[in-house]
Amino acid sequence: MKPSHWLVVGAVTLVTLSLWAWFNRPLEEPLWPDRVMGFAFAPYRADQDPQKGVHPSEAQIDEDLALLSGKTHAVRSYTVEGVMASIPKLAHKHNINVMVGGWIDSDDAKNEAEVNRLIKTVNANAQNVVRVIVGNESILHDRLPVEKLIGYLKKVRSSVNAPVSTAEPWHIWLKYPELVKHTDFIAVHMLPYWEGIAQEKAIDYIVMRMNELREAYPKKPIVIGEVGWPSDGRTRIDAKATQADQATFLRRFLARANKEKYVYYVIEAFDQPWKANSLERGVGSYWGVYNADRQPKFPFHAPIVSIPQWYVLAGASMFVGLLAITLLFLDSHGMRKRGRFFLAILSYGIASLAVYVVYDYSQQYLTGGAMIFGLLLGLGMIGVIVVLLAEAHEWAEAAWVQARRRDLKRPEVEDESQLPWVSIHVPAYNEPPDMMIHTLDSLARLNYPNFEVLVIDNNTKDPAIWQPVRDHCAKLGDRFRFFHEDPLAGFKAGALNFAMHQTDPRAEVIAVIDSDYLVNGDWLYELAPHFQKPEIAIVQAPQDYHDQEESLFKSMCYAEYRGFFYIGMVTRNERNAIIQHGTMTMVRRSVLEDVGGWAEWCITEDAELGLRIFEKGYQALYVPKSYGRGVMPDTFIDFKKQRFRWAYGAVRIMRAHIKELLGVRETSLSWGQRYHFLAGWMPWVADGLNFGFNIIALAWSLAMIIGPQFADAPSVVFSILPLILFAFKILKHLHLYYTNVGIRPMQSLAAAIAGLSLTHTISMAIMQGFFGGEKPFFRTPKKAEGHRFWHALSEARTETILMLSFWIAAFGIKLRVGFDFFDTRVWVGVLLVQSMPYAITLLMAAISGLPAKRLPVPEPHATSADNYPTPASESNAT
Fold this sequence. Notes:
TIM Barrel, transmembrane helix, 4 domains, Glycosyltransferase 2-like domain-containing protein
């Protein structure tokens, strides 16, 4: 890279490092006390799960109590089933008191057995059992009616000497005062995270609720049976679950509890990975002060840092970002500083996000399935990032260049008699004769000395269609020759190969236009001289159209087409990597013959020919100036079929040339050319992959609706990336259409709508291109009758079904799951964004069904290139 490039990188690196440091600045909080009053105690290890009958041994429980010895006065247990009944006895060895719990469920027989064990355990360990809990949130979760729970409370209170209660959140105690009458104290759970309270407000919230309980039951002692905060999990309304939030909450609470003289049990001593499959789902695993390996999760006395290893992550993001920048800055010597700053900021931002996502995922307790799922999501994240960086690179190269590196000016010609002889080929199949006659008349008015016109009508059956064209060619003189061939295989490529064999021996250049094109008189005069340079094999002018005012539908299509020809093709031309398209193209005859002519196996024979010519080491030149205009598809279904053919053909070309594009097979392709062909088709490939994502998203959403207790929304760190990419592409589109194409914001919006309406069509084309067989050539009809409104809507029936599926999924999640978790809200946002292209397709279909007006065919002189401004990127790049 140039020294100026390193200055940009250095500046952005410094800013990025400063941001990492700022977000991880140390926070001073109250110190952890020498001993906490109590811990909720579930001694399960990472590989143990009570739901599967895998429990800790007495030795393991003893190890955990030994670790807590001297750090707490008491622990709280939740059941006396099996080995858990030994907790009081083992705790006594370590001078730890116990609030013993009995688990009450909906099974009466099990409850009776549990109550009997509870009474026995309490009476056998009177020396250190200080309280007894009968049931844990049994009323909250509707495990049994209040009356039945009161019966169990009566039985236990009459059988033991220790104080007895049940454990419920604050609102349950306020709702059921009759429950209070049958307890010796109130064991209340204060878990503001589950109520969506921001960590910064949580302590005051607990104090407020405690005061409410004291006011309601002034004579009843209150014990906080659970109080805590998770270190990982989903954001619930305003409550974020991070390690820093957990540390801050607990250190502040313990200081406030000491001041308020609260009796409390911190939930909990150790993380419980098995709870990932419980009602608490992912967040339930992360309430421990110690992790599953029995290591403290945060400092007890030192300042709190959000990510203690932030400098390692910052270094990793610097490395990944620098790698991306190095690749993006290759061959970018013409880019302005603002373009390099744009790419550098984006690279470091995306790298930092990716590194954080990997770090965050690595901090979780992952099962084998979760690891596989995370790997798949990671691959998807990499794909989104690659597409995002490719889009960013095109944006920077289109908007922020100092000057174009290739000379597009017409070479001086000393002797015009030496201009190359040009053979113009016009393939046709079943085209309206009046339209073709106008095309031929425009060719007859070319201001060029040496040319011929060959019209090849292949396989048109009706003589009334092709004979008037033949007769008109005869009227135009010897320059015009007409061929009607039936049968003739190979579709358009077959017709063009046939024309090659009929071409005048003097012809050095072969030009191709579609049968609907009205060419400007200076077309050949301005572009043919470029062939004086022997390395030039292709000279290409943009496709353009003259019927954009015929309807709103065509106006929108017209705006959408222009983006490719005045943004994508302009940047590709800088590295000699344009997509050759089969009209307004000129190719050196000797090169065309050398590469074997047009490929009859490919339905996008023009783009495939251009790639083969590049593989031979020749150059192409793109002049972004209109020299001819045709007609657009008249109906939405034809618009879709045309784009299907382009996308499907691109995939088949990639499949046929993948070794050349990847450098496996030796060719003369430069790495810049390979990049543009692969990166240029990447958004289409991404659309194909996105369809798979959509099907998975709908299936996932269905699982959330059917079993909300088992299926969570995907983590926001994964959901947010598709939203970022969508927003980024929209911003890029609006900016470049304004600066480089030179159209107004409303026209740019219309172009975006037209482009998005093709998303599903492109998806299907990509998938069928990769996994399907060969598709026949589809000719875009000219002068076709537009469909009536309801018929036009039926052309979007598949997209409408998908749109409704996404809307129903979003509404179903709102009803069944709710919006408590931020991840769920983001996921619903993803569903709605993913539905937008399908909704827009329906809108585009409706617009295409509106009445159109027929315009008179313009005279050829109206197609003058002077009527089309040079794109802004050529004239005043900033």
